[in-house]
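Researcher: Next entry in the queue.
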Amino acid sequence: MTTLQIILLIAASGCGAFAAWIMRTKSHNTFLEILLSFSGAFLLGTVVLHLLPEIFETGLNETAHNNATAIYVLGGFLIQLIIVQFTRGVEHGHLHLHPHLSNGYVFGVFFGLSLHALMEGLPLSNAAMADINSNSLYYGILIHKIPETFALGTLIFFSYKNKYTPIFLLMVFALITPIGSFLGDYLITNTSGASLNNIIALVCGSLIHISTTIIFEAGGKAHRMSMIKLAAIVAGFAISLLSVAMH
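Model: Structure for this entry, 247 residues:
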């Protein structure tokens, strides 16, 4: 990533954190739910339309290559399932606020979401973005950072009455995804091209879990979503398709 892209990622997290502070007395925000629906659809569209075709390209041994790649995609999905046990679905916009949240619960959510943010940064490394030759994933993650950090920030502001702990935790969280991109560069530089493919496949599996969960849960328990959420999802798919068509 360029310096500007890193700054924008941190700024997106800052916007989510600031919105959480403004809305700290509420646990519901319609605009951010719509933004979450849009970002989920855009991420899923980018993964299906662009990243999956890239990582399933024909290799020297097509069958072995595709089988190995498919296993890594499933592995990424499984990793996200494990992460959700810590985050309780905060990355999906779920908030579980009650007066007796323990420090262990809050730090468990923070740890899980930080691991998730680290995985988001891996395919944003310079080497990976040059290889897949696409900024679509970057923009999808950039947009997703706002509702993601909003949900985490709301939980942290609710749990800590002093201002220093929330600010410190949210500043650390804002840096995790850029750190993930540097980690991705390190891993790719010190391993083979196949490892780059595997890293992207893992993240694809993780993003498929997140984006589909966001979309499925947009309709709530009754499985009926508002027209504006449906429009946001359709717009996310359309823009991801347009970005691929223009590529």
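Model: The radius of gyration is 18 Å.
Researcher: Noted, moving on.
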